[in-house]
Amino acid sequence: MNRASLILASLLVASGFLLVMRGRADERERGRERSRAASIESIMKTVHGKKGLMKSLEPMLNADNVKWDSVKAITGKILPLAQDLGKRKPDRGTKESWAELTAAYAGFAKELDEAAAKKNKADAKDAFDFLNNSCNKCHSRHKEKGERG
Question: Model pTM?
Answer without folding.
Answer: 0.72
